[in-house]
Amino acid sequence: MSNEAAGGGEIRRGVGLAALAALLFGMTAPLLKRASAGSGPLASGSLLYLGAAAGALAMAAVRRGAGRLAVPRAGLGRIALVAAIGGAAAPALLVMGLARIDAASGALLLALEAPFTLVLARLLLGERIGARIAVAALLISLGGAALVGGARGTPAGAVGALLVAAAALAWAADNLLSRALADHDPRGVVAAKGLLGGLASAAVALAFGEVAPRPAAAAALLGLGAIGFGVSLQLYLGAQRLVGAARTASVFAAAPLAGVAAAFALGAPWPGPALPVAVALVGAGLWLHASERHRHRHHHAALEHEHMHRHDDGHHTHRHDPMPSGPHSHPHRHEETTHEHEHGEDLHHRHAHPHAEEDPR
User: Fold this and answer.
1) Does the model's pTM come out above 0.85?
2) pLDDT tens digit sequence for 270-302
3) Which residues face 307 on adjacent strands?
4) Which terminal CB of the chain, N or C, has fewer other CB atoms within 10 Å?
5) Which residues touch 63 (CB under 8 Å, ≥6 apart)?
């Protein structure tokens, strides 16, 4: 396979994984509003992430041929931090916010996760963000601001909007911390994160005497966690491995639109004129994200490392007997090479970008 075809294929695969993750997660917010009604936010959040862990363990049991479930020991400290931020704090903030704001606006406000992640990816990881992506992030941020501004007349709505925005910021921090874990087995990462985050939230909920969900609501929360958080996060980590944190967040920004559609399908009330303005701004930002391309001539130094990889990406040309058909992990070597193809910011493309070599598209 040529590097050109492989590079484009990796980007398309990563974008596809991120889009599917967005769809599954986006549909969760309006359903979560119903399932968590009358329950404590930490108690509800704990069931979401315990469900995510159960979903990851179930997928590992079904896919026994893909190898045993692997949890990166070197990353356990990072997983614990991710569990505290993304597995405990973020879902609790989301549940509290959704209790004070309509489901459609709450779902759309989650679009703020994308610009938050883009800014953090640029500042902390040095990922490339051109003018096109910066404008897209600005449009999405303005869409979130329009919803917050539209809720100014209702104090509870304004507080709810800010709480959902805080959840989006917490998940953006989670995305940055998770980037270093994306090159490991996503099932192991999700299982560990879900168990740690879920158990920590449950312990705090018990300590504060929070109201526990009724059995039917608890079952719904576990199911939502398994699909909307567990499967979605595995897909998200797969996308990060292929195209980097910033581009994955760009595509994942479509999640709130799926949530808005689900909210109205469930009979959510019309939140007011701020919603169509926000949808237009977020939609324009998504279009700029989805149409962004990046290619230039770049150099790969000789390298030996270990991570999850495939053999149809144009960069992993070492041999096996027999040759595995899917993702697998083992120590391997890359020879030095220089070439040009379309690429994202995966593990092998975290190089510098001199201005003269940047593709203006």
Assistant:
1) no
2) 767 777 887 788 778 777 766 766 666 766 677
3) 330
4) C
5) none
pLDDT tops 60 at residue 4? no
User: Which two structure tokens, joined as six digits, stand for 78?
Assistant: 């990072």
Distance from C-alpha of 244 to C-alpha of 252, rounded to nearest angstrom: 12
Contact 264, 105 (CB under 8 A): no
Cis peptide before 276 (omega within 30 of 0): no
For residues 224 and 36, the answer to whether their CB atoms sit within 8 Å is no
Q: Judge whether 309 and 316 are in contact, CB under 8 Å.
A: yes
What are the pLDDT digits (tens) for 45-60? Answer: 899 989 999 988 887 7
